[in-house]
Amino acid sequence: MNPQTMPIDTGNTAFMLLCCSLVMLMTPGLAFFYGGLVGRKNVLAIMIQSFVSLGWTTVLWFAFGYSMCFGPTWHGIVGHPGHYAFLNNINLTSMFTLGGSTAGIPQIVHVAYQMMFAIITPALITGAFANRVTFKAYMLFLTAWLIFVYFPFCHMVWHPDGILAKWGVLDFAGGIVVHNTAGFGALASILYVGKRKVIQNEPHSIPLIALGTGLLWFGWYGFNAGSEFRVDSITASAFINTDIAASFAAATWLFVEWFNAKQPKFVGLLTGAVAGLATITPAAGYVSPAVAALIGILAGVICYYAVALKNKLRWDDALDVWGVHGVGGLIGVIFLGMFGSTMWNPNGANGLFHGGSAFFGKQLVAVLVSSVWAFVFTYAMLWIIDRITPVRVEESHEEKGLDEGQHGEEAYPQGL
Q1: Distance between CA atoms of 14 and 220, rounded to whole angstroms?
Q2: Are 277 and 220 in contact (CB under 8 A)?
Q3: Which helix (H) or strand (E) holds 160?
Q4: Residue 192 neighbours by CB distance under 10 Å
Q5: What is the pLDDT of residues 296-345, one digit of tens each?
Q6: pTM of this structure
């Protein structure tokens, strides 16, 4: 059917607009989650790093980002940056037909939905270098990381002509593209920027963390279920798998920490939920609910001990981005390679336990490549940015807090 004459499916289009709104809400949710975890003097500094991505990433996406992700391929690595530049070649009658889609949604809806993924991904990294990076350096980081990490991997994995997609790698909603790349970019940031001078590991507001978790969990239904790009049984299974994995991971983390720390911790419960959400993301539309429960349990245990390992190695991952998102995304991709089943998605693949050893190997290679590239490029990029403008804040700013030192504002003015 000619894309220009394909009828709009109003049900699918309305659903995708709703999912787009849900994923947009995740970025403010992340800001609240991170804002509650830091100290009172650094709340605004960490929150603005999420909110500014809502604005600046949208500018880059409109200018050339969508084109680099979903434009005609350049050697399977990245899309032609000029094809959809400033949304050129997209109009009211343009329909989303990439990969032979017959969902009947306008292409502009696809532009908006995928933009929300691009917005939140670099914002995830900010928790790793909380309280010690200048805002100017962060803006350069945000720009370069999107161009050289997110956009290429989005194209390689999610464009049908992308090199990893053509090879047979699967990632339903962002285990590689979002969480794994962000997590290992965070690890590089931790090692380059170094430890905080002023260590504040106690969250200043657990209710804010709970609010952020609730918004993230709520938005994640759009993140995962919406990645089917239509309303069908796979959409429904991705939806329920998201909730099951998050719930099992939250409970598992709670009990593991309770056993080790001798007290049930609310922050642990919330962190476990986010770990489960990150881990199920690549597999959400490719596995059964029973497997989603198993993935949630494994996520709760593995991510908990990844954070414990980070603490033992004394990496100053202030808000556990690597342990939750990096490790969660990595093991989620591997679990997809193990448990994926065409019985639950005919367009998926059979994993190792269903006779798909070749698919399992491809998932391992893909997640290794994304981890290494995100780590190496992020470390090198921070070194280059440091030659342009200092990456690390002045010690005096760190001592009095970045809210006042970097932004001249206070979340909690004295006397109010």
Answers
A1: 17
A2: yes
A3: none
A4: 18
A5: 999 999 999 999 999 999 999 989 999 999 999 999 999 999 999 999 99
A6: 0.96
Tokens 């309770």 identify what position?
258
Taken in order of first residue, the domains within the chain and their CATH numbers are 10-407 (1.10.3430.10)
Q: Coil, strand, or helix at residue 79?
A: strand
With 0-12 CB in 10 A as exposed, 13-18 as middle and 19+ as buried, what is 347? Answer: exposed
For residue 99, give both structure tokens: 């990969």
Which pair of structure tokens corresponds to residue 111?
């532009």
DSSP symbol at 74: E
How far apart (Å, rounded) are the C-alpha atoms in residues 118 and 107?
17
Nearest one of 119, 124, 173, 126 to 151, comparing CA atoms: 119
Which 8-state DSSP code applies to residue 170?
-
Helix (H, G, I), strand (E, B) or coil at 106: strand
> Tokens 């009211």 identify what position?
92
pLDDT tens-place string over residues 180-221: 999 999 999 999 999 988 777 789 999 999 999 999 999 999
Residue holding tokens 């593209």? 177
Count H helices, E strands: the chain?
Answer: 17, 2
> What angle separates helix 327-339 from helix 181-193, to the nearest 10 degrees?
150
Q: How many CB atoms lie within 10 A of CB 86?
A: 12
**Tokens 């004295």, residue located:** 414
